[in-house]
Amino acid sequence: MTIGEKIKYLRQKNDVTQEKLAEYLGITYQSVSKWENGNGMPDISLVVPLANFFGVSLDELFDRDSDMQAAEIEEYMKKSGEFSNKGLVAEELALWREAVQKYPRNFECLNMLAHALYGTVNHSEEFDRVQDGNAKEAVDICERILRDCTDNGVRESAIQILVLIYSTDNLAIADEEKAVEYANMAGSFVCSREILLTHAYYTEEGKKEAVRQEHRNALRFMDKICTNMMYHPYPTTGEWKMALEAALKLWSTLIYDGNYLFYHCRIARLYFHLAQACAILGLRGEVISNLKEALCHAKMADEQVPGEQHYTSIYVCEATSDISKSSKNYTDTNEEVIRSRMNYTVFDFVRDDPEFIALTE
After folding, report:
1. CA quadruple 279, 285, 290, 291: dihedral sign
2. How many helices (H) and strands (E) does the chain have?
3. Which of 166, 220, 252, 259 lies in disulfide reach of 179, CB 3.0 to 4.6 Å?
């Protein structure tokens, strides 16, 4: 890879225009274009600023084998996505340990290792004895990223992990002050990428992308709102039941045609928690009906076909779902998760009900 090809690769990887790079270096964008087309070379005085701009070493800037490294890391990413989609937490962790051992200074690999380490937190008995150690290792990696990495995307990801770990109260290193400190390092909601992209596009073609972003945002915002409603510590079970029912109504308003695609798993969870609330209140009939709905949506979530599919509600029809790109930290199907949780003692009073028995079979 020539220096011009490497500059083009780094520029596109970081979503930087020729004009922006030229502005930073104090030159014309035509000069950048000439480098990338092989019609010129950057002046020696620009080499260090170029490396600093992209957050790479001089060795990496001139490394002829860097394209091979990029290809290998892309392959790691592909394998990681497959493991994550199947809930293979241990395999994903081993994969990124291998990648970091091979590329110890690559921040993408370090970031993915931190994510994999966080994936073991509150996972299962398999990681009980090492959760605190894994959390501490993830924190060390993320703090190193914030100290040395200039890639905004990687830094934001590291901040997210730090907040999540420091706010997990069953970990030995839980620290609310640090969680708040790192949370305050993130950008504000109104200045987030998701919000700004809906304003950034203004051409006719761009406006179509703005609508797609708005529809993706609607799904993410609804997911966040309803998840908050589901897990908020309400004073009474009756209020919890009311909140769960309201969350289901919100979802059914946004996706009025029932084509929830990926979010079938969220609807299944809401119905299961509603069944729990009804069980606490002794509402036998509602327990059964809500468990039926939970299992129905869990099954539909499990039956999603890999590949990009459009939502069909007019409010979100420009958004798409691809179940093969989702991730989880368990290997069971959604239906298996619901059935296993039906063993909770709260359901003991309906365990002899023929309809309940039928649901467990």
Report:
1. positive
2. 18, 2
3. 166
Q: How far apart, in Å, do the first and last CA atoms of the chain sit?
A: 60
* Distance, CA of 52 to CA of 47 (rounded, Å): 9
Planar angle of CA 19, 21, 25, nearest 5 degrees: 115
Burial class (CB in 10 A: 0-12, 13-18, 19+), 71: exposed
- Report the C-alpha gap between 268 and 150 in whole angstroms: 40
Of 211, 201, 139, which is closest to residue 168 (Cα–Cα)? 139
Q: Of the candidates 325, 258, 324, which has an alpha carbon nearest to the alpha carbon of residue 293?
A: 258
pLDDT (tens place) for every residue of the chain, 361 residues total: 678 888 888 888 888 899 999 988 889 989 999 998 888 888 888 888 888 888 887 777 776 456 667 888 999 999 999 999 999 999 999 999 999 988 887 899 999 999 999 998 876 566 677 889 999 999 999 999 999 888 889 999 999 999 999 999 989 999 999 999 999 999 898 889 999 999 999 999 999 999 999 999 999 999 999 999 999 999 999 999 999 999 999 999 999 999 999 999 999 999 999 999 999 999 999 999 999 999 999 999 999 999 999 999 999 999 999 999 998 888 899 999 999 999 999 999 999 999 999 998 8
Lookup: tokens for 353: 């009900």
Q: Which of 279, 247, 272, 281 is nearest to 339 (CA)?
A: 272
Q: Which residue has the tokens 């099954």?
A: 299
Question: Cα separation of 73 and 113, whole Å?
Answer: 12
**Assigned token pair, 349:** 């009073």
Tell me how far apart the alpha carbons of residues 123 and 234 are, in angstroms, rounded to a whole number.
26
Q: Which amino acid is at 308?
A: E
**Full-model pTM:** 0.76
Q: How far apart are CA 268 and CA 286, in angstroms?
A: 15
Kindly state the helix (H) or strand (E) to which residue 22 belongs, with its residue range.
helix 18-25
Calpha distance 194→190 (Å, rounded): 9
User: CA-to-CA distance for 161 and 110, rounded, in angstroms?
Assistant: 12
